[in-house]
Amino acid sequence: MEFITLTPENLAQEHLCCIIRTRKPHPGVEANRQWLADRLPEGHVFRKLDVKGCVFIEYAPLETAWVPIVGENYLYLYCLWVTGGPKGCGYGRALMESCIADAKAQGRSGICMLGARKQKAWLSDQSFAEKFGFAVVDTTESGYTLLALSFDGTKPAFTPGAKRGTIEAGELTVYYDLQCPYIPQRIETLRAHCAEQAIPARFIQVDSLETAKALPCPFNNWAVFYQGKFQTVNQLDTAALERILKR
Predict the structure, then answer these.
(1) Nearest Cα to 1, choosing from 92, 91, 110?
(2) Model pTM?
(3) What are the residue ranges of CATH 3.40.630.30 in the chain?
(4) How is the chain classified by DSSP, letter by letter?
(5) 162-245: which CATH architecture?
(6) Where does the chain hold its CATH 3.40.30.10 domain(s)?
(7) Whose CA, among 54, 129, 202, 234, lies 20 to 30 Å from 183?
């Protein structure tokens, strides 16, 4: 197993796992690459298997993680994905163990990640994390959980804003950042669909750490409100959007 950790020196040459393009640039990939370039100096880690596939882990110091979660001396685990042929070969375990070893080497208090009472499609597998000792340490009324692997008994928590889960605006509202390479295309598709169907909508880019920490809902890189209420952290296609609008 040969893993590559992205650095400012190799970031431009390495693929970013989720969308692999060999012939021409992809706008989501390039936006994600720039987002990572800005985060790596903050201690953000992107580690992947040295293959053309989707086998990677992504985490950062909680203090600089773009999520409405607070805690002292933790790492925040954004993503752990193994898909396709490499599944079942032990790569996910190796990546998780590397994150745990990294946290201990840094003298961290633990690692935390976003979960849900019912597993969400766009969140890492929490049942897999629980095998390593992750446990729920905080919850929201909207059904989301914060899982943590604590080394010293301390616990991170959602911010009060993240637990609120409401906004004043009633129209469809999507908060997003550029961490995931799928996001720019999804935003473009939803904008066009809302314009065609005359659906009032706001698309708000989360463009700073301060904005992310102050969000009124759980967030991993995407969050949706409708009629003032938080709906999901799942990225939406037009069919999923229509299901929300019909509730």
Answers:
(1) 91
(2) 0.95
(3) 3-158
(4) --EEE--TTTTTTS--SSS--SSS--HHHHHHHHHHHHHGGGT-EEEEESSSS-EEEEEEEGGGSSSSEE-SSEEEEEEEEE-STTTTSSHHHHHHHHHHHHHHHTT-SEEEEEEESS--TTS--HHHHHTTT-EEEEE-TTSEEEEEEESSS---EE-HHHHH-B-S--SEEEEE-SSSTTHHHHHHHHHHHHHHTT--EEEEE--SHHHHHT-SS--SSEEEEETTEEEESS---HHHHHHHHT-
(5) 3-Layer(aba) Sandwich (3.40)
(6) 162-245
(7) 129
User: What's the pLDDT tens digit per position in 184-233?
Assistant: 999 999 999 999 999 999 999 999 999 999 999 999 999 999 999 999 99
CATH code for residues 3-158: 3.40.630.30
Cα within 13 Å of Cα(170), Cβ side: 0
Residue keyed to tokens 């899982």: 147
Q: What is the amino acid identity at position 92? A: G
